[in-house]
Amino acid sequence: MKKTTPTILSILVGLPFAFAVQATDPAPKPGTEEFGLTPRELVQAIDQVEALITKCMRGQGFEYVAADYNTVRKGMSADKTLPGMSEEDFIDRYGFGVSTFYTGQAPQLSAGYSPAKIGLGERNVGIFKNLSAADQVAYNRALFGENPGESFAVAIEAENFSRTGGCTREAIGQVFTEDQLQASYYNPKDALINKDPRMKEALRKYAAQMRTMGLDYNHPDEVEPDIRERLAALTKNGTLRVEDMTPEQIKAFKKLQAEERRAAAMNFHLAEELFDPVEAAIEKELFARKVK
Fold this sequence. Notes:
This protein has helices at 8-13, 17-24, 39-59, 69-77, 87-94, 115-120, 122-129, 133-144, 152-158, 166-175, 188-195, 197-212, 223-234, 247-287. Helix 4 (69-77) crosses helix 9, helix 12 (197-212) packs antiparallel against helix 14 (247-287) and helix 13 (223-234) runs antiparallel to helix 14 (247-287). The chain is mostly helical and 292 residues long. It is globular.
């Protein structure tokens, strides 16, 4: 009898169904929320992190009430917004709201714009305010580590966990991956979009126009992290109050504020002109729906 060679089809027929599906299905697309999560995964991650922060803070001898998803989401949504002001108006006036709203005070004591305060929730702000001044310092060191104000809501909205510390960092590290904890992490959805030739061309135009303004940035996502790092270097990681700055520090601080306003405004308007239409078209092709 003639010996026949088995075909690929006959081999697959004899394998479990799940394997055959994996062999033919395209790679799953990333989620459309922060860190490439789906909406459901984001809710679950927030709930898990907040529960772990509560446990960690209790171990440090402090009370912390796990903020629910809606509270954390409000903190995320408060980024670059104020009542009665559009995001464009906010950026033209305050830049990213990083150095322009900096005081050196704990975020829980902020009287104005503070996504960190909103994301912590009223109960945690109340707990903090009832502590002595010395205990407030110890509380925020336990919660935030060496960078006061780097809250979970602020970090997840910025998609940058690298500056988190204390119980916030410990909790995040148990829920998110090692790659997601790095400053170099990039949202897989955005990475897909950036590979598109249309986006690459938009990036070339962006970098060229930013350089005409004396701004050395190659991508819109580089600008705000740079301002945050420069502010941290100037203010000892956010522990130096404005009223305690030397005249030289005040001068450098005001220069940074002016540069933030200029860079943020240029960044916003170039992104609106060059990126938004291209990104919308690519997202429609990738996800078959508009990503909010």
